Amino acid sequence: MSSAIAAFCPGHISGYFKRVMGRDAATTGSVGAGLVITEGVLARVKPAERTSIRVCKRSPSGALSEISRESTLLTSVLDDLSITASVTTECRLPIGAGFGLSAASLLATITALNQLFNLGMNDLEITMKAHETEIAHRTGLGDVAACCGGGFVVRKIAGIAAPVKRYFNFSEPVYAISFGPIHTPTVLSSPKQMDRIGAAFPDAEPKNIEKFFECSRAFAVNSGLLTPQVKKVLCQCDEFGIPSSMTILGDGVFAYGNGAKRVLTQFGSTYEMYVAMQGVQIVERPL
Question: Please, what is the end-to-end C-alpha distance for the chain in angstroms?
Answer without folding.
Answer: 13
